[in-house]
Structure formats: structure tokens, C-alpha cells
Amino acid sequence: MSFFNQPIQLGNLTLKNRVFLAPLAGVSDVPFRRICQELGAGLTYVEMLSATAIAYKNKRTFEMMARHASESILGVQVTGPSAEQVAHAVSVLDQQGFDTIDINMGCPVRKVVTAGCGSGILREPERISKTVELARSATARPLSAKFRLGYTREEVNVVNTVERVLAENVDMFTIHGRTRSESYSTPCDLMGIKLAIDTALSKQKSVIKVGNGDIFNYASARKMQEETTCDAVMVSRGALGNPWIFKEILLAETVQPEFAEWLDLVLRHLAYQEEFFGKTKLAAILARKHLLWYTKGFPSSKSLRDVLNRVEDLDEARAHLKNYAANIAKDCIRFAGSASELTSDYDPKYEMDRKLDRGVGDEGMEEQVNS
User: Fold this and answer.
1) Which of 104, 107, 244, 354 is the most exposed place for a label (fewest CB within 10 A)?
2) How much is the pLDDT for 264?
3) Beta carbons of 287 and 270 less than 8 angstroms apart
4) Which residues are within 8 A (CB) of 303 and not within 5 positions of it... i.e. 6 or more apart?
5) What's the start-to-end Cα distance of the chain, in Å?
6) Which pLDDT score, from 0 to 100, does residue 339 have?
7) Distance between CA 182 and CA 186 in Å, rounded?
8) In terms of pTM, does the model score above 0.85?
9) Catalytic positions, please?
10) Which residues sit in the known binding site for FMN?
11) Residues within the annotated binding site?
């Protein structure tokens, strides 16, 4: 059994393995989580929620808390402009029945940071302590925090952040190996993550230490674990269009689906999309980004993406996929004969979500932050 395919204890929760899906704004909805869980994700989260929106009982925010009956363990992530607001939100999320709650102190998006949320908190060390302290008092469920190395490279304070969250008794923390100011063109700093994890080890506290950043396959997950000694990894961009990454990391071998398997999964995702969002135009619009990500790696797929990016009905999307499938061999391997190794600046969420399917994820976050 590989290192990652072993259970791990998070408070009172037994997680089946050590490969987690990050809370991805505008992405981590019920259909996508179900697909990732089926491919092996050991822990998944509802996308990041705004404590301010929760305080105002924003309708869309509460709709985002939806949970499928098959999700036996589900986490949720929250961010807010003050310790008190985060603590209130944590108490609400506790009552909603989520199994574990994470405090986001790492989101780099400008409008989130300027609202005093996400990685904006990293410039206020005392607020880090107060936020976790009050959140800890608001729930007995496993509590975690996700953060970056610092706000800028000149303000790296991850060791201090780790010391503060440990002092307030988090059960887990996740470190993304970049500062808030660094883009994906800057490779993940594994040594920065290791320094923080060594700090936790020196405290001899029982806490799960998770590494995050530039995990696109088994090789990068193994490198993260070996060089940082983390207990688990959290996958973000690497799962977009490639939920098979969880299977690959757990099997410790390369997984490139043949076309028949790929098509079956994409159609299943669309079925989950229709089940959750209904047979609506919204369901099709929200599926576009996933379809664009999924269709990378097969021959002559650009023209397919062009039409899928305009679909307004899920049946229309299915018809385009089946027409395309008629000309592709069932045993065609995704990315066969192409350089599929991804580099640190690979950012499908920016390319697809923000450029081609404008505002799908961003509008939801804007509504929450401005509520």
C-alpha cells in the first residue's frame, strides 16, 4: 500500500486516505465533488464561504452548503474580515452538520484580500491567533487552517503562523508553498513548507500537516511528501479536468484514461449536474468550464471546445460529445504523444473560468464578499 493510500485520523474522523481536494471557489460544487470522491479523494470541501454572507443569511451562500447523500464526510471552508465574524460563521457551519471546518487565510484574490479576508489576515498575526481561538471555542468538530508562506516574499511569516494556529489547537493545517504576491509562474517553495512542518514537529503536537501547490500527478505528490515530510497532500488545479489524479496518486502510477473511460466519466458528471441543478440553462453554463477542462488532450478537440463553450442545454452538450466520440477510437489515450507534464504556471481556472466562461466562479464570490 502506498503512503497516500493509508487512512489518517482527523480528530474524531477517520479519513480513508491522504489525498484531499481543495475548496475551489466556483468549482467545488456537489457534482464535481462526487466525481472526485468516486476517483478516490479522501476529503473534499464545500468551496470557500464568506463569513459576512453567512451573517447576512445570504440565500446563495446557504445554497452552496448543499450536500449529497453519498458524502459521508464533508468539510467546509470559511473566511472573514474579523475574528468575531469567522467565529459566528463557524458556529453556524457547525450547526449545519459539516464534519470538519477550515479557516481560509490564504486566498490571494484581490477583492477577497481587500475585504480583509483570505491572505489579508497574514499581515495581522494577532488576528490569526484571535480568529483560531474564537473559532475553536465555537466548535468541537475538527478545525483546520489553510494559509500561505506569507503576504510577500519579504514578509514570509509561516513559522509564526504555524506556531499561532498550533497554540490555539487546530487539528490540521495546510500550507500553500507561495506568498500572496507570487503568481503560479513562481514554483511552489517546498523548503518553505518543510520549515513550517519542522516547526510543528518540534512542538510534538498531534496535528495533520498538509502540503499544497503544484501537485499535478503522482510524481509531484511524492516529491511534496518526501521533501516536506507532510502527512497528506491537497490537490487544487491538478484536479481540473483530471479527477483521475486521485486514482493516480493512490495507485502510485501514471493514469491516463482511454477515451471510452473518459467519455463515461464526463457523461456521468453531466448526469450529476442535471440531478443537482436541474435541466436548466444554468446547469449547462456552470458545466462549461468542466467540459473545457475535460476535453484537453484528445485529437482535434479545439473545435469541440469552441461549441461546448456556448452550450445552453445539457442535452446539447451530450450531443456534441457523442458526435465527437463517433470519430475517436475507444482506446485512444488522453495526451498520447503530447507533452502532458504540467509546469507550475499551469492555471486552467484562470484560462477557462475567467477568460472563456466569464465570471462563473468570480460572480459567486463577489456576491458573497459584498453581501
Assistant:
1) 354
2) 98
3) yes
4) none
5) 47
6) 53
7) 6
8) yes
9) 107
10) 77, 146, 176, 236-237
11) 77, 146, 176, 236-237
